[in-house]
Structure formats: C-alpha cells, structure tokens
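Retro notes (design track)

What went well: tokenization of the new backbones is finally stable.
What didn't: we kept losing track of which sequence belonged to which structure.
Fix going forward: every design gets posted as structure first, then sequence, in one message. First example under the new rule, 254 residues:
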C-alpha cells in the first residue's frame, strides 16, 4: 500500500535500521507506532515492551489494535558472530528467541486485528545471511533462515486473505548491531556495508510494491539466488571467511 495509507507498527524502532525506517516512513506520509525496550523517544508514539516476553507481546498487540495498525514491520533483532564453539548457550537461546520465536508469536497475536483491516501487510526484516550460510554466523543465520521460511509459508497460508506477508533481506549494515569484529571480518572478506538509510529506502519500496521479498545490495542479491540453486556447490567459496575466524581448538583443521 502507499505509505500515506499506512499505520505502521515498527519493532526495533530505536535501533540503527529502525530509526532510519521510522524517519523514512514518516517522511513518506505513514503513521508509525514504535516498539522498543527503552523509554519512548520524545514526542513519538511508542510501546515500551520486551518482545521476548508474553507480557511484552500482549501489550504490543493491544497498543497496535488501539493504533489501528495495518502494517507491521518486525525489525527487532540481536546479533551473534563467532564460531559456534564460542557462543554461550544463553546467547544462542536469546538469538533464536528474539529473532525467530518473538516475531512468530507477535504475528500470531496481531493477526486477528490485521485480518479485520480492509488491507494489511506484515513485513519481516530477515537477512542475506538467512539465505546464504556464512562461517561465523551459524546461529544468527539459522534464526534468519527460520524467519525467511516462516514468512514464505505464512505468505502462502494467507494468500486468500487481505493480509500480505513480505520479507526484506538487508546485507551488512552500518549500525551498532555490528561490532569491531564483524567490521574486521567484512573488511577481510570484501563484504560491503550499507547505510541504514539504504535499508529504509528498500523497506519503503517493499511496502509500496507489496512484493513478496526484496534483497538489498549487489552482489548479495545474485548470491542469494545462486546459493538457492547451487547450495553445497558453493562451499569452496568461503575459505577467506573461515580463515578470518578464531582457530578451532581441540580438533584438526585442513
Ligand atoms: N545491521 C546489520 O548488519 C543487519 C543486516 C541484516 C539484517 N539486520 C536486521 O535488521 C534488524 C535491525 O538491526 P539494526 O542493525 O538496526 O540493529 P540495532 O541497532 O541493534 O537495533 C536492534 C533493535 O532491536 C531491539 N530489540 C532487541 N531485542 C529486543 C527485545 N527483546 N524486545 C524488543 N526490542 C528488542 C532493540 O531495542 P532496544 O532499543 O530496546 O535495545 C534495538 O532497537 C535486526 O532484525 C537485524 O537482524 C541487520
């Protein structure tokens, strides 16, 4: 739908990408209700909620219904970089809970009200890493791959309703999400990073086009397609990525 007709519930609204999205959507004429764990930025409609909790999701769904949301953008997320062996179990749990389980449960809570709207859209912020498995991003990539699979199935499940399901796949983006270790990995592997404003522009285009999905950046857009066709045939392309990670301990490498 056109931005001027959109009443957007935006999770992760205080984040690097979320702030750029909120600004871009408002500039295009949309109304935006932000969600975040921190207190409301001054003068902005806001729900303060932890989306990894039942209470947080219930409060968010109630506020969205009161606001008359007809577009939902799930942009809340947490990072996770490093070899699997180095990720603490609590961090692994938090990545899956925040990036995958929370958007699924929040969507479930929002759907009854969305289905009463003449038209509605649910957009997920996935990742190129949800379609291309990269060394160092096994758990984060799995959480986003889950989100891409969820969005695809839900899109087909709701195809005969007034609710459209969409997913955006940004590549690496310059926000506080990526620490120095990720930036060094990106430099070492020649991975480009976008400004959050570029991701916000892609989100607006996705919402207005009502397309099923949109990936940001080249060659990532092509790589996503190639990976889908060739799969394991591309395994030899990630030596630089693997070598940049901390060495494996207690095993043999080649
Ligand atoms: N940056 C990248 O390279 C990149 C690339 C591809 C995709 N993405 C995806 O884009 C989205 C936004 O990323 P970003 O770069 O903007 O990251 P960010 O600056 O760290 O923002 C993430 C936001 O998520 C919110 N959040 C995290 N856990 C939450 C919870 N339990 N309940 C409610 N809110 C929670 C945070 O809210 P608080 O303000 O409460 O902390 C924060 O505002 C994420 O889904 C990320 O996976 C990012």
């Amino acid at each position: 739908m056109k931005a001027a007709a959109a009443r957007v519930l935006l999770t992760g609204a205080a984040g690097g990408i979320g702030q750029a999205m909120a600004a871009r959507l408002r500039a295009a004429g949309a109304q935006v209700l932000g969600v975040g764990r921190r207190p409301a930025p001054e003068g902005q409609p806001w729900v303060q909620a932890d989306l990894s909790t039942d209470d947080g999701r219930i409060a968010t769904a109630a506020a969205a219904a009161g606001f008359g949301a007809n577009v939902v953008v799930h942009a809340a997320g947490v990072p996770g970089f490093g070899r699997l062996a180095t990720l603490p179990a609590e961090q692994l749990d938090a990545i899956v809970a925040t990036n995958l389980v929370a958007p699924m449960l929040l969507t479930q809570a929002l759907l009854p009200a969305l289905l009463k709207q003449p038209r509605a859209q649910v957009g997920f912020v996935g990742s190129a890493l949800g379609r291309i498995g990269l060394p160092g991003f096994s758990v984060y990539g799995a959480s986003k791959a889950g989100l891409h699979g969820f969005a695809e199935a839900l899109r087909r499940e709701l195809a005969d309703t007034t609710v459209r399901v969409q997913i955006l796949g940004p590549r690496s983006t310059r926000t506080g999400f990526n620490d120095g270790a990720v930036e060094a990995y990106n430099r070492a592997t020649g991975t480009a990073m976008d400004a959050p404003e570029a991701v916000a522009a892609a989100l607006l285009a996705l919402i207005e086009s009502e397309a099923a999905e949109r990936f940001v950046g080249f060659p990532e857009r092509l790589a996503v397609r190639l990976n889908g066709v060739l799969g394991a045939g591309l395994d030899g392309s990630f030596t630089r990525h693997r070598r940049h990670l901390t060495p494996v301990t207690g095993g043999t490498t080649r």
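Added context from the reviewer: Helices lie at 16-27, 54-67, 89-114, 138-157, 180-189, 196-209, 220-230, 239-244.
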